[in-house]
Amino acid sequence: MATSIFTRRNAGILAGIFTLAMLSRFDSIISPSVASIQASFPQVNPATVESVATVGATAAVVSALIFGKLMEWLTFKVVGIISCCFIAFGGLMPLAFHSSVTELLIFAVITGFGAGILTTMLPSFSARFFRGPQLSGLMGKVLAMQDGSSMVILALGGLLATGGWVRNYWLYGLALLGLVLVICFVPAVKAAQPDEVFEDQPAKELEALPASTGSTQETGRTKQSTGAIAVCILIGFFSIFLVAVLYNKLAVYIDEYHLGGTDAAGFALMFNTGSSVVIGLSINRIRALLRHFTIPMAFVLMALGSLVFIATRAFALVCLAAFLVGSGSAIIMATCPFLLSNLAERQHYPLVMGIFSAMTSLGFTASTWVFQLAAGVLKVSPLQLSFWGMGGIALLAAALLTIGRFQARVEERYIAA
Question: What confidence tens digit (pLDDT) does each residue in 216-241 have?
Answer without folding.
Answer: 444 444 556 889 999 999 999 999 99
